[in-house]
Amino acid sequence: MIIQELIQNVREHIGLIASFRVVTIVNRLPKTRSGKILWGTMKMLVDGEPVRTPTTIGDPATLDDLREGLAVIRYPKRKFQ
């Protein structure tokens, strides 16, 4: 399965310091209209913090795709209070 191969490949080529155990696959990442990935917004979603749709986002539906992918792996672990 691709997820196990990805985890193993990172462990072998980059090392344990960069290894991870939890992976989800999404069709696309949230990006600005100029093509920059919205890393901060993704981190907020993973951390369970409230997220307002950035005005610079190219396609707001990508946030829903990411939320669905995170729900598959039961993320976020904690909800923002």
What does the model show?
- This protein has 81 residues and is mainly α.
- The chain has one domain.
- Helix content is 41%, strand content 0%.
- The chain has 3 helices and no strands.
- The chain has helices at residues 2-13, 39-47, 61-72.
- It starts with a helix and ends in a 9-residue tail after the last helix.
- The model has no long low-confidence stretch (mean pLDDT 92).
| Dominant shape | globular
Work out the helix count: 3
Rg measurement, Å: 14 Å
The total beta strand count reads 0
Question: Helix coverage percent of residues?
Answer: 40-55%
**End-to-end CA span:** 37 Å
Low-confidence stretches: none
What is the element string, with H for helices and E for strands? HHH
What's the domain count? 1
Structural category is mainly alpha
Report on the biggest sheet: none
Average pLDDT, all residues: 92
Determine the strand fraction and express it as a percent band.
under 5%
Summary, kept brief:
This protein is an all-alpha fold. 41% of the residues lie in helices and 0% in strands. It has 3 helices and no strands.
In terms of topology, how is this protein built?
Elements: H1 2-13, H2 39-47, H3 61-72
Question: Keywords for this structure?
Answer:
81 residues, mainly alpha, 0% strand
